[in-house]
């Protein structure tokens, strides 16, 4: 079975599928170490809000999506599948999940405002 | 399973199922469909968690102050290290799984067996770690009070700002109530185990210790830390207490918002259940490898299918890790 052996858009090419797996493991470990280090240090510069959320949280979410991409593409070998199969798996998730996130978080923020500005005390 | 393999339908005509536009076998496609629907289930749970969190954005518990245990390091504040270790274990078992799939492509029975065994061990270690994490969460360490309004108040030392356990200051008032069991209770109703102290004992102990302060649920928007009341406000606040809360259950938890523990139990529990079933599936496949089932079948595609499930479990953990422990 043929495998596509390069990651990072061809920047890194491996000799065999096994080597590619170890390469991806090293990459995922580095990303996790960065996440944990940032989570422990919490640099003050990253705590300012950007688009309604702390900069640090955006970094965490983006790094998570990066990790998810490499798990799906290399460990679940979506990279080796036909493009139509990949799209039919990934597109429904890419469309539905952000939609759900958007709807529910906007609604939750609205409820938060009602609770804090309303005439009912929630802390009595 | 034989009818699903690629070679059997090779010769059939297009309308008889011979056409495979996605170049994937029936079994693999169904595994992918299951994963897509399961991914939507997990996103539903995680988004519901986000909903509750955004709804209570100024009073949600801070993960570092909840998960700080590490094996053999008693009393040392070690946030994040333990879950980071768990994440590594799971990613590593994912790697051995890919190596098993790879060995399967090369029809190397012994290597497949070894890598499957390593994957099973990794999964079992992860589930065990999860159980330890739950044990710490349920047991709690310091204890807290709950007010009339359902807010959790914790106790900290004025000098260090560190949390103080109830048992280190609560007074002893004789004549405690005994636990109600079904043979002594009204209408044969029993109750869950009583907390170690009554509200009055904690209140009395608090008033006798001028060094103690109350840490509220509310987060200071400037510093991102929980607000600690001064002594006068603390003494006023403690009169609002209604319950002693030790550890966590599905009703109350000493860490803060009630929903926090509920979501923790539900989401990590659901994920842990997935890991557990993954270990069971891997075990079945492992024995089939040893028995030579796939050797006789002529291909190791089953390893690939169960591998997809296993990687998916890893993928979900990456998100659970981010949203429960990091963000």
- Uncertain stretches of 5 or more adjacent residues of chain A: none
Largest beta sheet: strand ordering of chain A: 1-2
Q: Tell me the distance between the termini of chain B.
A: 44 Å
Helix content of chain B: 40-55%
Number of structural domains of chain B: 2
Low-pLDDT stretches of chain B are 1-9
Query: Total number of helical segments of chain A?
Result: 3
Task: Note the overall shape of chain B.
Answer: elongated
Number of strands of chain B: 5
Structure write-up:
The complex is a heterodimer of chains A (124) and B (327). Chain A has 124 residues and is mainly α. Chain A has two domains: 1-80; 82-124. Chain A has helices spanning 17-41, 55-75, 83-117; strands at 6-7, 12-13, 49-50, 53-54. Chain A has a two-stranded antiparallel sheet. In chain A, strands 3-4 form a two-stranded antiparallel ribbon. In chain A, a hairpin with a 2-residue loop joins β3 and β4 (53-54). In chain A, α1 runs antiparallel to α2. The mean pLDDT of chain A is 87. In chain B, a hairpin with a 4-residue loop joins β1 and β2 (152-157). Chain B has two domains: 25-140 and 260-326, Cytochrome c oxidase, subunit III, four-helix bundle (Four Helix Bundle (Hemerythrin (Met), subunit A), Up-down Bundle), CATH 1.20.120; 146-174 and 191-246, no CATH class. Chain B is elongated, with a radius of gyration of 26 Å. Chain B is an alpha+beta fold and 327 residues long. At the A-B interface, α1, α2 and α3 of A face α2, α3 and α9 of B.
